[in-house]
Amino acid sequence: MFAIIFINSCVTTRSFDSSNICSIFKSNPQWKIITENTKKKWGTPVSLQLAFIKQESSFEKNAKPPRKKFLGVIPSKRISTAYGYSQALDGTWNDYKISTGNSDANRKNFKDASDFIGWYVDGTYKLLKIQKTDIYNNYLAYHEGRGGYQKKTFNKKKWLLTVAKKVEKQAILYSNQIKNCKFSNKKNNIL
Predict the structure, then answer these.
(1) Which residues have C-beta within 8 Å of that of residue 179, sequence separation ≥ 6?
(2) Which of these, 113, 122, 130, lies nearest to 54 by C-alpha position?
(3) How far from the centroid of its chain's Cα atoms is residue 42's Cα?
(4) Which residues of 66-85 are buried (b: 16+ CB within 10 A; e: fewer)?
(5) Measured between alpha carbons, how far is 24 from 54 in angstroms, rounded to an integer?
(6) Could you tell me the pTM of the whole model?
(7) Model pLDDT for residues 16-54, shown as the tens digit of each residue
């Protein structure tokens, strides 16, 4: 009996449906303001920001990639330094902090993660001329890095092309859902 109670106490339940933007913002109203501010600052659509976060971390602030297995069983190093909501790598996160002057930025902070995604997409537009509304190609550049995108490394990863389509579909769904949210304001063109 004690084991069942202990196991149940360790299980966390999400207070929102991560596939529904209305549910996300109803449970986290500050996230709506944060993502709108990121859109104003960087021109990065709210729907893109949330679709990236959903794919990368499932809205888990402490998300980390899995560990490699030594001898197929013993956990060793993680497969990358990705961490937090945005799953930003150490080097890219440091570039963001230096570039923006946000030296206290934390990958577990939703505001910083949103701003990071906006900054990254803005930089991708400046370097690669990928429109900020092009979710599919922005996700490929985000996942592979801009250099990887230029080398088209994604073409060797059919699974990644499928994931990019999934992210694009989620962003479109978020864009359509926001129109029916009770808090939606026609004057706020946030998506």
Answers:
(1) none
(2) 113
(3) 15
(4) eeeeeeeeeeeeeeeebbbb
(5) 11
(6) 0.85
(7) 899 999 999 999 999 999 999 999 999 999 999 999 999
